[in-house]
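Lab notebook, bench 4. The sequencing result for the construct came back, and we need a structural model before the next group meeting so we can plan mutations. Quick request posted to the team channel:

Model the 3D structure of this chain.
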Amino acid sequence: MIDKELLEILACPKCKGDVRLEGDKIICDNCRIYYPIEDGIPIMLIEEAKPLG
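Done. Here's the predicted structure in token form:
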């Protein structure tokens, strides 16, 4: 779904920390939030982030 090279350069826009791919979400473990992926494009906007639950 997401290219490995793209995932390696992505960072959480909130804390600038590392993120990981899980299903259709980009997850930041530091902030305990995730960013959705829509049509193969990660939506890396802080206002689009949702809490992990």
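The chain is about 10% helix and 30% strand.
Will bring this to the meeting.
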